[in-house]
Design brief:
Elements lengths: L3 E3 L5 E3 L9 H5 L4 E6 L2 E7 L5 E4 L1
Antiparallel strand pairs: 1-2, 3-4, 4-5
């Protein structure tokens, strides 16, 4: 459900729902690598030794 408000120009504006935010530690849960399924494909999200994230198909 969205809320409609009038903008200063008189047009209708939709309220934006805040973007859902996750931490990498919530996703990885102590692992260095996880597999994410999306649209029938598998993607690997890996945490490097330097603390960077790499997403590969």
């Amino acid at each position: 459900m969205t809320t409609q408000t009038l903008s200063p120009s008189g047009g209708t504006r939709h309220a934006v729902t805040p973007m859902r935010r996750l931490t990498s530690s919530d996703l990885l849960k102590g692992n260095r690598e996880i597999i994410i399924e999306h649209a029938g494909g598998e993607y690997r999200l890996r945490l490097t030794s330097q603390g960077k994230l790499i997403l590969t198909k």
